[in-house]
Every structure is written in C-alpha cells, then in structure tokens.
Write a structure and sequence with these properties.
About 3% of the residues have low confidence. The chain is 24% helix and 30% strand. The protein folds into 2 domains: 65 residues, Antifreeze-like/N-acetylneuraminic acid synthase C-terminal domain (Type Iii Antifreeze Protein Isoform Hplc 12), CATH 3.90.1210; 112 residues, no CATH class. By secondary structure, it is of the alpha+beta class. The strands form 3 sheets. Strands 5, 6, 7, 8, 9, 10 and 11 form a 7-stranded antiparallel sheet that branches. A two-stranded antiparallel ribbon has the order 1-2. The chain has a two-stranded antiparallel sheet with strand order 3-4.
C-alpha cells in the first residue's frame, strides 16, 4: 500500500468517526429533549368564545396534543366530562379546557317544572344573577283596568325561586301599543325551577303585570316572609 492509499484509508476512517460522533450527538440531543419534555397527551382547546352559563357541546372544542409535564392537573383529557354541563365563566377562544371551567346544570326536583320569562336587563338582572342563584320575583300591578277599588301594588309572587339558566342578552322591539314594553330595549331569558302553582303565578305576572323584577338573595340564605311582607301599596306608607 503506497502513501496515497494510506492517506485515503486514514481519511475514510476519520469520516466514519465523524459520522458516528454526529449520530451520537443527535441521539444525545433527542434523549435530552425527551427527558425535559416527556411523552405527549391529548387535551382540548376552546374553538370559539363560549358565554358563561351556556350549555356545552363537544363540537365547541378541538383536540390537541401537548407534553404531559406541561399539562395542569385539572386539564380535561376526556371530552365526555362536558356532557350535561354548563360553562361557569366566559370561555375564550384558544383557552385550554379545565375541569373547573364547567359545572353541572341544576336539576329539577320532584314536582318542579321549568318556566322561562324575559326579564328587563337593566332593572331585573344587571349581570349578577347566574345559574343556581336564588331570587325573589316581584310583580307590580297598576290600578288601571282592574276591578273597582283596586290600587297599584307590588307583590312578591314567588319567593326563593331557583334559577336554572340565564340566556343571552336579547334586543327587543316592543309593540307601540304595549305600554308595558315602552322603555325596555334589551331583556334576558331567565329559566326557573318552580312548582306548578308558582309557575302559574309567574306566567300570570308576565302577561298582566306592569313590570316583573328579580331580587337576588344571598347564597344559601332564603327569604322568610312575615305576615304582610308579601305585598306593598303606597297607601301603607301614607297611613303611617
């Protein structure tokens, strides 16, 4: 073997060593990345904004994969958890779905039924009444068109009504000849869980009362009405 052949063999050996070194470096780098990132798992991301207290559907979320070590403990990895659930806060597009973002919708108790009415957004809701809230439902009645001797009064037609659902703010177009609609431009559909009798009271008030308003009660603090507290007329103050 002459000197030129020896140089060729030497260069070939050096090339092989360099290639082995490069492969070893890549393997080491991959192992280092894997040790820092770890295996990937499935999670779910919000596809579009979802309003608070809206019933959730699987189609509102998209599946993604991400390193397990970067996933929070309460991240949703099984989309079946949203079945029969509502959003407890506004869900923003691109947000990772977390278990504390959803909750069960309040269920009807035995003897109850759902009834929904439109409530003036400005005077009846003001953004503070949410699913699960307890409210007193007030109705005010004018003396016009009522039986002789009737006076204008305010009544608590249902005490401690439980809110099942709060809908979206809805623009209204009241009829010009509907005096009760004048001034009301936006309303929110509120669904209650009520007994048959209370549902009838609410339906009557929505049809014939001048206004229907809600009064939010403190959490776990229902109203206890004393005699005479269920209704009010201006004459009661005049006679004091």
């Amino acid at each position: 073997m002459n000197s030129r052949q020896r140089r060729g063999v030497l260069l070939l050996c050096l090339s092989i060593l360099c290639a082995l070194a490069a492969v070893a470096g890549v393997i080491t780098l991959i192992g280092d990345v894997n040790s820092k990132v770890g295996p990937e798992v499935e999670a779910y991301r919000v596809k579009a904004d979802v309003a608070a207290y809206t019933a959730l559907q699987p189609g509102q979320f998209e599946r993604i994969t991400m390193p397990e070590r970067w996933l929070s403990e309460n991240a949703v990895t099984d989309l079946s958890v949203v079945k029969d659930k509502i959003a407890v806060t506004d869900l923003k597009r691109g947000s990772l779905l977390q278990e504390d973002m959803v909750a069960k919708r309040p269920a009807l108790e035995s003897g109850q039924q759902e009834i929904a009415i439109m409530i003036d957004a400005a005077t009846g809701v003001a953004g503070k009444i949410t699913t699960g809230s307890l409210v007193n439902i007030f109705a005010t009645f004018d003396d016009d068109g009522r039986e002789k001797g009737a006076v204008a009064e305010s009544r608590i037609i249902v005490a401690n009504a439980r809110v099942l659902d709060v809908g979206r703010l809805t623009p209204l177009d009241p009829k010009k000849d509907d005096n009760r609609g004048i001034g009301i431009r936006e309303a929110v559909p509120i669904t209650f869980a009520l007994s048959t009798t209370d549902a009838q009271r609410v339906a009557y008030a929505e049809s014939f009362a001048e206004h229907v308003r809600l009064a939010l009660l403190p959490k776990n603090s229902p109203t206890v009405l004393r005699p005479g507290e269920g209704s009010y007329t201006l004459d009661e103050d005049k006679n004091k």
